[in-house]
Amino acid sequence: MKSSRDIKLLFKRLKKMNNFLVLNALLIVCISISTIYSATISRTTSFYMKESIWAVIGLVAYLIVTMIDYRKYLKYYKVLYIINIFILLSIFFIGVSRLGAQRWITFGPVSLQPSEMGKVLVVLTLSAFLSTYFKDKLVGVKSVFIAGAHIAPILLLILKQPDLGTTLIIVMTFSVMIFMCDLDWKTIILLGTSAVAFVPFAYFFLLKDYQRQRVLTFLNPEADVLGSGWNVTQSMIAIGSGELYGKGFLNSSQSKLRFLPEAHTDFIVSVFLEERGFLGGVLLFGLYFILIMQILYIAETTTDRFGKLICYGIGSIFFFHFVINVGMTMGIMPVTGKPLLLMSYGGTSLLISFIMLGIVQSVRIYRD
Q1: Neighbours of 190 (CB within 10 A)
Q2: What SS3 state is found at 284?
Q3: How far apart are CA 352 and CA 358, in angstroms?
Q4: Beta-strand (E) ranges in 75-163?
Q5: Using one digit for the tens of pLDDT, what is the confidence trace for 36-87?
Q6: 282 closest CA partner among 321, 245, 249
Q7: How many separate helices (H) and strands (E) can be counted in the chain?
Q8: N or C: more exposed end of the chain, with fewer CB within 10 A?
Q9: Which DSSP category does 111 fall into?
Q10: Gap between the Cα atoms of 129 and 309, Å rounded
Q11: Could you tell me which residues come within 8 angstroms of residue 181 by beta carbon, excluding any fewer than 6 positions away?
Q12: What distances in angstroms separate CA 120 from CA 114, 209, 213, 255, 288, one per listed residue?
């Protein structure tokens, strides 16, 4: 009898699923795989095949995570926090270096990037911390610093890799989450002013030489077109040549002729816009807008503070990845190497994206 009731309850919860959320994500992934195929077909077919396999794995992970009651994360958030620290620490012992950064752990043919999982765990543990210790709202700078101390060890470990892009995304996500805790405006203005004043100090004393060069390239890419400004310049050429309707599938000359580096990862949007043009961009950007709005709608219709903060945090991660990646391909943001979630090639990124959507779906079906 008990098992029968459990099955009925499970089906009842499954009926509450927002199926359009995952369908929206799968449509973006289909666009991604076709664009990866177009960008790499002249060299190899392995990239789009690997991405297809990761998409299937990600979908399975999404279904599994959806079935886990999100409130369990609140119960075990301290354990999750320790796991996050352990995973990020392990990279300095068993991680491999690529392009001057130690961000990956390799298991045979599979490479994983712990900081990608770290972002999700930060959202879960920070949501639990805020909903446990600040049940009403955040008031004053002291409260913000207490909440900030929760993520400080994570940020330091990610900065050590170094991975400035992920660090910035976590900081911006943190800002959104504390704002949604009804932070008072006096504190918001004070912190905002302090952040602006901190920028020059960070530029001259905290950023490494190559990071400062990226900022200078962002401000004036034409100053070194054949050097640091090459990627952005070629990206803007690809986007502009797509015009209204695009050149058509498999006709992205910038990637085919190897003018556009990292065409299937960081600059995949440039390839897509060159082939599909402005109208294709409207479709793709519209899909992301709808995806993020669905996540925020689930947050707004959830009365549980923990579930609400989780959705806001995950929605922020998707939003900031979109803004940073699309912005850098158009030359309106510095190049940081952050992928466009669900679109850029990368197994870890795709898997974590589906896991995040599964957590949001869990909030949807298990909320009171």
Answers
A1: 14
A2: helix
A3: 10
A4: 95-98, 101-107, 110-112
A5: 998 888 777 788 899 999 999 999 999 999 999 999 999 999 999 999 999 9
A6: 245
A7: 15, 3
A8: N
A9: E
A10: 10
A11: 130, 134, 137, 138, 309
A12: 10, 30, 30, 32, 19
Collect contacts of 260-265 with beta carbons under 8 A, ≥24 apart. Answer: 260/231, 260/234, 260/235, 261/230, 261/231, 261/234, 262/231, 263/39, 263/40, 264/35, 264/36, 264/39, 264/40, 264/47, 264/344, 264/345, 265/339, 265/344, 265/345, 265/346
pLDDT at 205: 67
Mean pLDDT estimate for the chain: 86
Alpha-carbon distance of 325 to 269, in angstroms, equals: 8
| Burial class of residue 21 in the structure, from the number of CB atoms within 10 Å of its CB (0-12 exposed, 13-18 middle, 19+ buried) | buried
Beta bridge partners of 97: 102
CA atoms within 13 A on the CB side of 267: 30
Residue type, 272: F
C-alpha distances out from residue 241 to 227, 252, 328, 347, Å: 22, 9, 17, 30
Burial class (CB in 10 A: 0-12, 13-18, 19+), 290: middle
Residues contacting residue 368 through CB under 8 Å, at least 6 positions apart: 303, 304
CA distance 25 to 294: 11
Backbone Cα Rg of the chain: 21
Per-residue pLDDT tens digits for 320-367: 999 999 988 888 887 777 889 999 998 889 999 999 999 999 999 987
Residue type, 237: I
35-52 burial string, b = 16+ CB within 10 Å, else e?
Answer: bbbbbbeeeeeebbebbb
Helix (H, G, I), strand (E, B) or coil at 26: helix
Query: How far is the C-alpha of 340 from the C-alpha of 162, rounded, in Å?
Result: 20
Pairing of strands 110-112, 95-98: unpaired
Cβ atoms of residues 185 and 137 within 8 Å: no
